[in-house]
Amino acid sequence: MDAEAAALAFRPPTKRSQCWAAVVVLVAFVMTVPPMVFLLGGSGDGSVLRRQEGSFDKLLGGLLVDGFDEKSCHSRYQSSMYRRNPGRKPSPYLVSKLRRQEALQRRCSPGTAAYSTALEQLRSDNRSVTGSPECKYLVSISYNGLGNRILAAAAAFLYTLLTDRVLLIDPNNEMDELFCEPFPNTTWLLPPGFPLNYFSFSIDTPESYGNMLKNKVVRTDVASDAPVYAYIHLNYDATQDDKLFFCDEDQRLLQNIPWLVMRTDNYIVPGLLLDRGYHEESARLFPEPDTVFHHLGRCYDAYLATAQHRVGIQVRVFGGQPNSPALLEQITKCTQKHGVLPERLSGTEPVVPGPSRKSIAVLVTSLKSWYSEKLKSMYWEHAAATGEAVSVHQPSHEEFQQFGSKSHDAKAWAEIYLLSLTDTLVTTAWSTFGYVAQGLGDLRPWVMYRPENNSVVPDPPCGQDVSMDPCFHSPPIYDCRLKNVADTGNIVPQVKHCIDRSWGLKLELEDMLVSTASVLVQRLQWGDSGLHKSDAVALV
């Protein structure tokens, strides 16, 4: 799959280098594909993204496999050359599981006899058409914003690893162009001619698992014939019946259904780990704390590469007030209180540079340019009190979110990846854009709390997240063992409530899994057709 980071080369305002981004691959998503990276080419003053000296592991400890045509996705094997931090190594069990998943995809994916038989079974809605017992499928529906799509795909990929299903991704919303093929000698894209009109599936679809339970079409308490397919509705509006999907006994029932079609705009991994069986298997896949997303999804920019310290600030504006002085004040209070950015001198104080003046490059990502311009003028008009040289940069400002626009998504992918390359990250509460960046970069960000009143700065303005893993915004509130409503943040020690969404769930740092999201994302790459030189230059 293609990683949601596009190839970008940024020309610093103070330098006229001719560098450009040939291609950038972001590793992010649901499969066993390598991590994304920016491959920058060109000539200039040496400020271009540099390869790290010494040897590098192009297969990322086994997350990737040899056998792909390198020209089809340059960053697949070259991403590791551009990171200062090589990242955490996957467990041997995860590597072996990925190899088994690749083999399963080859035996059962589109173009095989097994897939044709399974498709005929689905088309006829007849269990008497017997397919290969090992070939069961999960179709992941792609929709909503880029961050939602990446997190949903990463979660779907983990689910296929846990349940030995073949993953097929809906190619709509540029999913076929934003990501490289993750599996060698096969495909993970759902081909044309699929017999189910899944675009119309919703919370009211009779074949949804929640509705079939409610209407006793399927039952977990007595033996019943399993249908050929079930629709898994895990959107923000999912009902309690829909969320029984996360219970052990329901997962045992779902194992008997050949086709699952899943729609979610959430990172559902914390919910999966409420299942005891999946919790144990996940612990084997991701034994290192808090790296689930990091390994599932793991560029420098011309002006970021030479800075001694890189700070990323992700500004997500909710509601109808794009230029908010209160949000700007929250950014400055958060970054200065926690030493992310230095305090500024008053106009009368002299600048006393230290013996070695430290350089700080600040990357701001936002639909609006107002915040970066204000930060830039602050450090232009008043020098840093501790003598650092602070520069502020923003690659693009699209003004509003554009659903269905390939160029818009390409820029967003690139900026997510750039944020993941920073040393310190500040994000906005509830933002899937920030979640992907922190998971890819193995970063515990400073999260700016969402204010109850847009004109009042929260106190405190931000707090540091407990782990790099994303937040599951719409988790179940049901204890499957006690058969009662419960606080699911207190059921297993590794799953706790989110810092930015009190009812959400996330994997916590202590005794945690390796970031599921990161691993999944790293199996994806940005396809060469997804972003070209002209697109990259247009971002500046």
From TrEMBL:
Described function: May be involved in cell wall biosynthesis.
Query: What family does the Swiss-Prot or TrEMBL record give for this protein?
Result: Belongs to the glycosyltransferase 37 family.
**What kind of membrane protein is this, topologically?**
Single-pass type II membrane protein
Q: What parts of the sequence cross the membrane? A: 20-41
Q: What are the GO MF terms of this UniProt record?
A: galactoside 2-alpha-L-fucosyltransferase activity
State the superkingdom: Eukaryota
Write down a Pfam family by its short name. XG_FTase
- Major localization class: Golgi
Plastid: is it a keyword of this entry?
no
The places in or outside the cell where this protein is found are: Golgi apparatus, Golgi stack membrane
Q: Know the name of this protein?
A: Fucosyltransferase
Give the Enzyme Commission number: 2.4.1.-
Q: State any GO CC term.
A: Golgi cisterna membrane
Alphabetical list of InterPro entries matching this protein:
XG_FTase (IPR004938)
Q: One biological process GO term for this chain? A: xyloglucan biosynthetic process
Coiled-coil residue spans: none
- Keywords from the UniProt entry: Cell wall biogenesis/degradation, Glycoprotein, Glycosyltransferase, Golgi apparatus, Membrane, Transferase, Transmembrane, Transmembrane helix
| Transferase in keyword set | yes
